[in-house]
């Protein structure tokens, strides 16, 4: 299966996206017959079947437990990333914004500046 956005712009709520699904000839023939009997398109039948399946999955206690495990793992990874940002930017939780001052501290200001050393070549080159 592959998803293809209908445009390059972000999707707004309710917009439809294209989903290409490979199915057997027999299943396609059955889908076409169901669509003919209901008076709906094959696309609409697929959409209705997916909506039904999602509702069924949402009410399955096993799936709910798995979803909670996934959510816990997402939160754990997010906390790890927040901690990494705090470590990089001194506990601020975010990188400095362009509008915030980035004036060096007294220690940084008094430290002598020197050109950055280049790796792999002597300074005389």
Q: If you had to describe this structure to a student in words, what would you say it looks like?
A:
There is one protein chain. With 125 residues, this protein is mainly alpha-helical. A two-stranded antiparallel sheet has the order 1-2. Among the domains are: 40 residues; 35 residues.
Provide a concise account of the structure shown.
Helix content is 51%, strand content 5%. It is mainly alpha-helical. Among the domains are: 40 residues; 35 residues.
Our count of helices gives 4
Query: What would the average pLDDT be, to the nearest integer?
Result: 79
pLDDT below 50 for ≥5 consecutive residues: which ranges?
A: 1-8, 99-113
Q: Proportion of β residues?
A: under 5%
**What shape does the CA trace take?**
elongated
SSE pattern:
EEHHHH
Helix and strand composition category: mainly alpha
What is the number of beta strands?
A: 2
Spatial ordering of strands, largest sheet: 1-2
What's the N-to-C terminus distance? 56 Å
Radius of gyration from the CA trace?
Answer: 28 Å
Reported for the largest beta sheet, the result is: 2 strands, antiparallel
Helix content range:
40-55%
